[in-house]
Design goal:
4-stranded antiparallel beta sheet, RNA_CPDase, Phosphoesterase_HXTX, 172 residues, single chain, 5-stranded antiparallel beta sheet, Cyclic Phosphodiesterase, Chain: A, alpha+beta
Length: 172
């Protein structure tokens, strides 16, 4: 099972985020139902380990907080975008939650040497020749805020149409 831990924005926020990306044949938009902010990617795990991971995640405690998504960016950068994302404000509460989850699940994953960059993937650029920076980055969307009171353990299943993310368990 290919597992990850995420924050899932409310459906209304996901619909608004989808509207941030223009229709363009060179861009494959993320389906709103798949939009999430990854807190920790666990990779391939056995079904037995997934049960232990669930038990470990039940120990994570935090206070709910507001998350604001406020900008459009890209990996590796805006000049040659491969992945287009909505950046989340890096609040202490968000970083604290991510670190608690990472510490709780340290036995199940290798340490990630890259810093945590909170974002929600909005699209992947499939044909760079058909996409310009103006197509994606000229808009200045209004910030979107929502309450974070939980997180999910999800399984990513690769299908012919793309990845489908299924919630295995919500916490709390």
């Amino acid at each position: 099972m290919r597992l990850f831990v995420s924050i899932d924005p409310p459906s209304q926020i996901r619909k608004q985020l989808a509207a941030w990306i223009p229709d363009n044949s060179g861009i494959k938009k993320t389906a709103p139902r798949n939009m999430h902010l990854t807190l920790l990617f666990l990779g391939e795990q056995s079904r037995e380990k997934s049960h232990i991971i669930c038990e470990s995640l039940q120990k994570v405690r935090f206070r709910s907080f507001q998350m604001t998504v406020q900008e459009i960016g890209a990996f590796p950068d805006k000049r040659s975008p491969a992945v287009v994302w909505a950046g989340a404000e890096g609040t202490p509460e968000l970083f604290n939650l991510q670190k608690k989850i990472e510490n709780q699940l340290s036995l199940f994953t290798e340490p990630d040497l890259r810093p945590f960059r909170p974002h929600i993937t909005l699209a992947r650029v499939k044909n760079p020749a058909r996409v310009t920076g103006e197509d994606i980055f000229s808009a200045s969307p209004a910030p979107l805020s929502f309450n974070v009171s939980g997180f999910s353990l999800k399984n990513s299943v690769l299908e012919s149409s793309g990845a489908v993310h299924r919630v295995l368990k919500k916490f709390p």
